[in-house]
Amino acid sequence: MAALIDVSFRLSRRPRSAARARAALRALLGDWGAGDDLLHTAELVLSELVTNALRAPAPSDRQVGVRIAHSSTDGLLRLEVSDAGSGRPELRHPGAEDERGRGLRLVDALSHRWGVTARAGGIGKTVWSELKAPDLLPTPSTREVAAVTVSPGQQVRVWGAWRAVRSVRTARHATGGLTVVLALDEGPPLHLAAAEPLAVRGLP
After folding, report:
1. Residues 15 and 81 grouped into a single domain
2. Is the pLDDT of residue 19 over 70?
3. Which of 31, 115, 129, 151 is most buried when burial is the number of CB atoms within 10 A of its CB?
4. Cβ neighbour number for residue 157 with a 10 Å cutoff
5. Burial of 81: CB neighbours in 10 Å, binned 0-12, 13-18, 19+
6. What is the pLDDT of residue 56?
7. What is the spatial distance between Cα 117 and Cα 122, in angstroms, rounded to a whole number?
8. Among 132, 150, 172, residue at a domain's last position
């Protein structure tokens, strides 16, 4: 899928993470000019995908990855949720008394198409859904912020390219000032003064 723009972030394996994913999606699609129908549908689908990922048997320290992307070529909004759990989700036919098993049927009903792919590295899986969104006009929201305000999941422009921030930590250096250390998806960690400006895009 040739994406015009995409945003990725990670969630801890906690019940409140589904609500955090929905809030991030609402903020992003609001910036992209989504209508109420698309926003509501996308929120339902993403919530089900994240909830299923949180329930997948996996070590508690493994995070859940979320990617939201739009293709200007085919007018599709793509929602991806990755987890380190084993197995593959399958459509079920729950009975009237069953409390689970309806989430994926909802995803199937609302999606233009959906599927499951192996996660990069061979651990876990990515469940994705595509929704028709021909009128969506996402634009990269780039701004300059102090290094100390950067969050994991955002992208920063370094070495002439955009790099995803995997983790952020701070340390005191010998002169008493604060150093921010950004672990990126590629290249060595970035060590910056707390107030140093960085070009950033993505949700905080």
Report:
1. yes
2. yes
3. 129
4. 14
5. buried
6. 79
7. 10
8. 132
Q: Does the residue 9 lie in any domain?
A: yes
DSSP 8-state secondary structure symbol assigned to residue 119? P
Tell me the two tokens of residue 131.
Answer: 């929704």
Q: Check whether residue 49 and residue 122 sit in a common domain.
A: yes
pTM for the model? 0.66
Rounded Cα gap, residues 40 and 139, in angstroms: 20
What is the domain count for the chain? 2
Q: What pLDDT score was predicted for residue 92?
A: 67
* Residue at which a domain ends, from 107, 132, 157: 132
Q: Residue ranges of the alpha helices (H) in the chain?
A: 17-31, 36-55, 103-110
Note the pLDDT tens digit of each residue in 164-183: 899 999 888 777 778 899 99
Is residue 78 within 8 A of residue 69, CB to CB? The reply is yes
pLDDT, tens digit (0-9, with 9 covering 90-100), for 20-49: 899 888 888 887 888 899 999 999 999 999
Q: Is residue 137 one of the residues assigned to a domain?
A: no
Query: Could you report how far apart the first and last alpha carbons of the chain are, in Å?
Result: 25
Distance CA 145, CA 47 (A): 30
User: How far apart, in whole angstroms, are the C-alpha atoms of residue 141 and residue 74?
Assistant: 22
Domain range for residue 160?
142-201
Instruction: Please give the pLDDT value at position 3.
Output: 47
Q: Using alpha carbons, select from 155, 184, 188 the residue that is nearest to residue 67.
A: 155
